[in-house]
Write a structure and sequence with these properties.
Chain lengths: 728, 151
């Protein structure tokens, strides 16, 4: 059992060592292969992609530059060169795209898009080339070029995306390489340590098991020796022999063991040597792999650095290209604009030449047939243009005056003065009008409003000739003079009229004065003497005679009242009003007090609501109220209960007062007659009075800038209104 | 008893007659002197012209019409009020006109009263009655001496 165990253990141990070593070897190999693959991918694919893109971009950049050159130089030869170049390089670019497409580990759409943009641009460019070959218009060519530039920019855009991706990929790959290197180094070291530990363990284990066996043998021998010492008795001889046999066997076993051990040791030694060899070999291999890996890393790093530099360069190129493209776009737009402008200019020029001709003709006609006299003279004051109006005015023909001095159109006495005036008017901007007298050959003189202006040469400074346009103001002048005279007369007339008016006013006043004096006197006498007649001569008068005399007397008194009223009315018109602000309430109360006598024996209810203050001549407004209250009382006297309501309110910018009675009222048909002088809507027999009160009210209110009106219905009372402006 | 003289100055004889009738009816006139115009009135006051040699009676009141030929009532009033000898005589302007201008002028010049002759004779008589009673009977006029006007 013991022997078997050792051999089995040894076998198992060896097997384990082999299995582990094998496993490690396979693992290492796989790791190396992976590293190798990754390394290859790392520098091969992105680099190829980047290179291809770089190539494509370089080409396109060249195209763009050429495009700009062509654009600016508008050179046919350069365009042809570009065409040849693009055709030649087309396959190369397409191949580049194919490589990128195959190797590119990133988003394939970007590659497809870039390719599509490139093809698109190529088509546009070809179109452009065709158009240029056919010598079509500039503007279209420019437009196409513009379009192509846009396409180019699009290509550039996609290529930039790819390039950026490749750059990123390269960077991440570089990181991966470093990581892988680190991993493989670490694995190799672990493997060596592990293998060494394993060998040490086995040696130790086998040595330990041998010493155990020897220990056992010594133990057994000691037992035997002890037994031998005890064999003092013969009986023990057999036991001794037995023991010696056992010892012999034991030696044999030991011998065998020694042999086995030696054998094993030898084998072990051989194995160790072999293992050592294998380990050394593997280590060498690993070391080699590492060195290679290191080398690759260095290359990769170098590559990655190059890639980074290339990418940066690429980015720079891209930026520059973008800038170029923008400039190209701007330049194209400008060119397009310029072309359009140029075409416009050319057309304008053509039109303007025609227009110029027409204008000249038109101007010639305008000058010749103008109603205004127009004259042109050169720097020597020789007439070079003399239009029909001037011909008519001077009685001289153009032929006659051409080349003659300007002076011939002036009268001899005014020649110098006129020339001086014209010179003077030309100083400055020449906008000044001067009055010049021109003489007809028959001797008649025309007064002209003369406006002359220098005609300058193209330098804008040198005077070539001078043109004068005139307005014949002879008639106007005479009318003006007449008007002036008339104005003077008018002034006199106004003064006269004012005087007359003053006079007539004075007359009117003295007329009123005499009416009041002289007209009243006879009436007074009639009434006075009738009274004396009745009193002193009653004996000779019968009843009828007395009645007649009484009627004469009454009528005369009435006539006197009318004269007084008329005079009063006329005086109201002449009185100046002096405005004050006063309480209407107080004024109405004062007015009501004067009617105390009239109110006795009558049932009258007077209702006064809120009354706003009034602004006007207090005395005149007082008379208005007196008249209105008097009217209200008068026309309601037949009512058992007379109700008079007085009120007022401010509406907009005026104060409106009203007085309402429940009297007989009137028919609104006659409302317009209400405020006239001596106009009565009722019989004098029914209501006393002469019909001047409302006329007075109207006169006063109107003088204040107010209005008065009335509303009524027969037998339903009347309401009288008057308004006064609010004032300040 | 002292005779109280009332001076009526009016160019219209009918008005004079009516005024006299009114005064008579009221028993007011001890003596009524009529001047036919302004000049006449001054002649009476100065006892000259046709009044030369008349009794030297200063009237207790003068009823003075305004609108008169030659010298108007206003001018007469002006003269009376500017003459120390006559300035205390009560002067009543009795006129046909209610003209405000005359009224103001009269009072400014020192008229004692201003009466518009009413057309209605009854009113006229009443007016004269009141005026006469006041100015000829009730009112006392200072006795004119040289001292008073010695300013």
């Amino acid at each position: 059992m013991f022997r078997l165990n050792i051999i089995t253990k040894i076998s198992i141990g060896l097997l384990s060592v082999y299995v582990v070593m094998l496993f490690l070897a396979i693992y290492l190999s796989l790791q190396l292969q992976l590293v190798s693959n990754q390394t290859r991918i790392l520098y091969e694919y992105p680099y190829q992609v980047s290179n291809s893109i770089k190539d494509i971009q370089t080409k396109i950049y060249e195209y763009a530059n050429l495009g700009i050159d062509i654009h600016f130089a508008n050179s046919q030869s350069q365009l042809n060169r570009l065409k040849a170049e693009t055709d030649k390089k087309d396959n190369y670019i397409l191949k580049g795209f194919k490589i990128v497409s195959r190797k590119y580990p990133g988003n394939k759409t970007s590659v497809d898009n870039a390719l599509a943009a490139y093809i698109d641009w190529k088509i546009t460019f070809n179109k452009l080339y065709d158009i240029q070959q056919e010598n079509k218009t500039d503007s279209k060519y420019t437009r196409i070029l513009l379009e192509s530039s846009k396409r180019l920019k699009k290509t550039d855009h996609f290529l930039t995306i790819i390039s950026d991706f490749a750059k990123n990929k390269a960077e991440s790959s570089y990181q991966k390489v470093i990581a892988t290197n680190y991993n493989s180094n670490f694995t190799s070291i672990i493997l060596i340590i592990f293998a060494s530990l394993l060998v040490i363990f086995f040696i130790f284990f086998i040595l330990k098991s041998n010493s155990q066996q020897i220990k056992n043998l010594v133990k057994e021998t000691n037992i035997l020796l002890k037994k031998k010492g005890k064999i003092q008795d013969i009986g023990d001889e057999t036991l001794l022999i037995q023991t010696l046999d056992e010892l012999k066997n034991a030696y044999l076993i030991i011998e065998e063991h020694d042999r086995v051990i030696n054998n094993f040791n030898r084998q072990l030694s051989e194995m160790n040597i072999e293992l050592d060899k294998k380990v050394k070999h593997r280590t060498n291999e690993l070391s080699k792999a590492n060195q290679e890996l290191m080398l690759q890393n260095v290359i990769n790093e170098k590559r990655a650095k190059e890639l980074l530099v290339a990418n940066e360069e690429l980015a720079l190129q891209n930026e520059e290209k973008e800038k170029w493209t923008d400039e190209l776009l701007n330049a194209n737009e400008e060119l397009s604009f310029q072309n359009e402008e140029k075409e416009k200019r050319a057309q304008e020029l053509l039109i303007s030449v025609e227009e110029h001709r027409k204008t000249n003709e038109y101007l010639e006609n305008l000058i010749n047939y103008s109603n205004a006299p127009i004259i042109v003279w050169n720097t020597n004051y020789e007439i070079i243009k003399f239009n029909r109006a001037f011909e008519n005015m001077t009685g001289r023909s153009e032929k006659e005056v051409l080349g003659k001095s300007l002076e011939i159109i002036f009268s001899k006495s005014q020649k110098e003065k006129s020339m001086e005036l014209i010179m003077k008017s030309l100083i400055g901007r020449g906008l000044e009008f001067v009055e010049i007298n021109v003489v007809h050959i028959d001797g008649s003189v025309h007064i002209l409003q003369w406006n002359s202006a220098n005609i300058l040469s193209t330098d804008g400074e040198t005077t070539v000739s001078t043109i004068a346009q005139c307005l014949d103001i002879t008639l106007r002048k005479s009318i003006e003079a007449e008007l002036l005279k008339m104005n003077e007369t008018l002034e006199q007339k106004v003064t006269d009229r004012t005087e007359q008016l003053k006079e007539s006013n004075t007359e009117l006043e003295s007329f009123c004065y005499s009416i009041s004096h002289d007209l009243r006197a006879p009436l007074r006498h009639i009434v006075g003497f009738i009274n004396l007649l009745i009193k002193n001569n009653s004996a000779v008068l019968d009843e009828t005679g007395t009645r007649y005399l009484n009627i004469i007397s009454e009528s005369s008194v009435e006539m006197g009242s009318m004269i007084d009223a008329l005079l009063n009315f006329s005086r109201l018109g002449r009185t100046a009003i002096s405005r004050t602000k006063f309480s209407s309430r107080e004024l109405v109360n004062t007015a009501l007090e004067t009617f105390q006598d009239e109110l006795t024996g009558r049932k009258v209810e007077i209702l006064i609501s809120e009354l706003p203050d009034a602004n006007g001549d207090k005395f005149l407004i007082y008379q208005v109220w007196i008249n209105l209250i008097s009217n209200a009382l008068k026309y309601s006297k037949k009512k058992d209960l007379a109700i008079i309501e007085i009120g007022g309110e401010i509406v907009n910018n005026e104060t409106i007062f009203q007085i309402k009675d429940n009297g007989v009222g009137f028919d609104m048909k006659y409302a317009d007659k209400l405020f006239g002088v001596f106009q009565r809507l009722h019989k004098a027999r029914d209501f006393e009075g002469i019909g001047i009160g409302l006329a007075n009210i109207n006169r006063i209110v109107t003088k204040h800038g107010g209005r008065c009106w009335a509303e009524s219905e027969v037998d339903k009372g009347a309401t009288f209104f008057f308004s006064l402006p609010l004032g300040d | 008893m002292e005779i109280k003289t009332i001076l009526i100055v009016d160019d219209n004889p009918y008005d004079v007659e009516l005024t006299i009738a009114a005064l008579t009816e009221n028993n007011l006139a001890n003596e009524i002197v009529v001047a036919e115009d302004g000049l006449d009135a001054l002649d009476y006051l100065y006892r000259r012209g046709k009044f030369a040699g008349c009794k030297n009676n200063i009237p207790v009141v003068i009823l003075l019409d305004i609108k008169m030929p030659k010298l108007s009532g206003i001018e007469v009033l002006k003269h009376i009020r500017s003459t120390p000898k006559f300035m205390t005589i009560p002067v009543i302007m009795v006129t046909s006109s209610a003209d405000e201008k005359d009224l103001i002028e009269s009072y400014k010049l020192g008229a004692n009263s201003y009466v518009v002759k009413p057309i209605d004779i009854v009113q006229f008589i009443n007016a004269i009655k009141i005026l006469g009673q006041y100015w000829a009977v009730i009112n006392k006029v200072p006795v004119v001496t040289k001292d008073i006007f010695r300013f």
